[in-house]
Amino acid sequence: MSTTTRRQEKKKGVAESVANSDFDVNILHDPFENPNIDLKFPLPIDKETYVDVEDNYESLGQSFNILNSAIRMILGYGANYDEIYSKNEYKYFLNKHSDEFKTKFKNYMNSKLEKDDTKLDEIVYDLINQELNMKLIEAKDFKARFKEVKKYMVEFYKQNNEKNLPTFPSHNFVRSAYLTVMTIMRRLFPKGIWVSNQDISNLYQKYLEDPMSIIWTPSHQSHLDYIILHLICVRFQMATPAVIAGENLNVAVVGGLLKGLGAVFIPRTFNNELYTERNLNNVMEFLLINKIPFEVFIEGTRSRDGKLLLPKYGILKSLVSIYLKQRFEEHNPKFNMLFQPVAVTYERVYENDEFLKELKGDDKKQESLFGILSVAGSAFSNKKDVIIRDKQGFTDNSTRKLTGKIFLKLGESFTLERFIDNPEIRHEKDVNLKKLGFTILHEINRNSFLPEVSIVGTALQAYNYFANKAIFSVQELIPVYRIVVEALLRENESSKTNKIILQNMLKFSDAELSSLIIEQITNFFRHIKVNDTKNLIRIESPIELLYYKNLTIHLIIQRCLVMYIITLLNGTEHCNRRIIGKLFYILTGFLKNEFLFDYDENERNGMSFIIQDLTDLGVISKSKAEDSEYAIYTIDDPNFVRLFANLAQPFLESYVVLITNILEMTSNLASNYARAKQQQTHDQIILDDDELKYPTTKGLLKYIIAQSRKKAQFQSLESINKQYLVSDLYYLNNLQLIKIFKNKAKTKAFVQILNPRDLQVINRFLIQLLHVNTEEKNLLTDEINVNYVIDITNKNFERDIGELERVSKLRGSKI
Ligand SMILES: O=P(O)(O)OC[C@H](O)CO
């Protein structure tokens, strides 16, 4: 038997053993003949409807509709057309497509604006009061002016609602969309979209026990996320959700279709608009009272780098305040909602090529009708997908579409009542929103599937940093591959699927692993090439590895950091648990936004556990037997330590890149500003001269990327990408070392240095940490110095720089 066939046999074994647990359904399979997928339990049929909401209307019989008839005829799906989405609404969920519901929705929103929402009146009163105070109007005109402004506001928000709120046209509209989208998706993703029937069945059963709005909270890496969840709902006989979507998607024609499918368009930033947020709250409250499923991407934007982003709290805050209002003001004691974290994993994200450009500093291409049509159009190109090789025999994927499987895994769902777990709480400010967001995202990370390509990507990235070679043999990669698989397996105890796959991979022979690596590179990479005759790999642009490595990095980042620190201190008396612990504390602080370290309850991620584990593995050893915090550790397996330490490095480098450039750019701008100010006459004084004094966030990032690439200061390009830099920028803002603020027109954001001295201290600390042009280590090893850096990261503003300066002077070192 050939190795490939043996590997296929083993892979089949994996698929079979997984079949009863995870990823047993491809939702793109057989969608027309059998649109409804049977769940793992029989859906009840003894009642007409299972959702206890007033005014849940059954739709009238099929009305004649030319479009639907045409679709039936053209596509020839006649027989089962009426089966699609036939029981989802009215029977198991509220029928949001009934005319009665739509009228009720519209009336509800209009009467909120016209009379029911006192908040709007308050806003208008405040405004007119200001006009009065500024003598823009006279007291006698107050009432008339109030009426005029209120009328304007009501009209404005009515028009806004018309433009932005879901329209829920009809079940036939859902059916037509299903047929069209299915047809496109099947062509775009021939390898399927995989889910676990048991996951969906568990959720459905929980929902039926006590129907309430399911709040779907998926990870967000692609615009396809919304489509996928809708298709899943249709197929598993659940109601499609209303979806919070950025107004950037409300483009010609497509915006209308998306509204038909439940999109609630919102501004990307609210800029304290007085009533917009409240208006959105009203929309959400109406949907939740009616137990309509709701979908929100709490990261707020698509992650371009494979890791989860920090949650945005706006919508979570609204959900919590609606819950408390309903329970305690509207006396609706059973009101609740069910959060469902969802991990969506792509073997190759559709937007991959665009994301690489953005990471390298290009502006995002705005969504447009043309762009969306061309995606749909590309599904129908009849170009055969053949593997092309260049003259040297390496794969040339520059013109191939490169699509893979998509996997969707549900985490453990929980109700808001269970999360709050305190009947005394009445105010949203008493609810820990950060913990709510992090609970959702940790649950996503805990359940994220690791596709084979993510393991290949991690091994390639690790080896690339380790060996720094552009061309190497597949054979050279294999030992690294095995080490990576072992490390990931140790951190995947809780994921049944990942565990099985990784365990099986460890049993592969070298020849089987080679063929797996070659196959994955051929299928998914454009800038990493492979020659399957000579068994060679060529890395043309390592930035493509970043995404795949980051699909796994959250599992091992803490140990990478510990190994990084040990590498720095190895051979000195400082390589003890006390100093390692302090540095680990600082570095996990630096990377806490990048990796969502807060509220992580996994004890395997603690420093003591990791050190013990590395000792047990024989990677490091303790020189003294007793368990003192001063016992010195030494590295026994330098290659192992270096391999993982390297993976942590780019995240730290990106801080040095950022801070050095903020300092440089700000000082350049300051001297230009001083010069301009001298030449300025009184008449020229402008309203918003921050523009001249401070870099904009956007300008700064562009400058950094352009400058740093020229300087090639670090080995890895990974440290100079937009997503890491943005997240670092917000951490420095949080430490109040810099301030990010908007201009008066709220069109731009600026970066101002608030604490140049401590920004320098952090910069020097990082420079020593990364030993860039310096042998000094005093900021890493001297406890007074280290404690000062800890004070910065702890936001202890009482910190005493004097002591730091005295110590440095005494020892003749620079701060
Ligand atoms: O910020 P973007 O471009 O990732 O947009 C993603 C949002 O879902 C659009 O509403």
Automatic annotation (TrEMBL):
Q: Which UniProt keywords apply?
A: Acyltransferase, Membrane, Transferase
Localisation per UniProt entry: Endomembrane system
Tagged with keyword Acyltransferase: yes
Topology within the bilayer: Peripheral membrane protein
One Pfam annotation reads GPAT_C
CDD domains for this protein? LPLAT_DHAPAT-like
Q: What is its main location?
A: membrane
Signal peptide span: none
Please state every residue range assigned to the domain named Phospholipid/glycerol acyltransferase: 214-347
Family, similarity comment:
Belongs to the GPAT/DAPAT family.
Q: What is this protein called?
A: Phospholipid/glycerol acyltransferase domain-containing protein
Organism field: Lodderomyces beijingensis
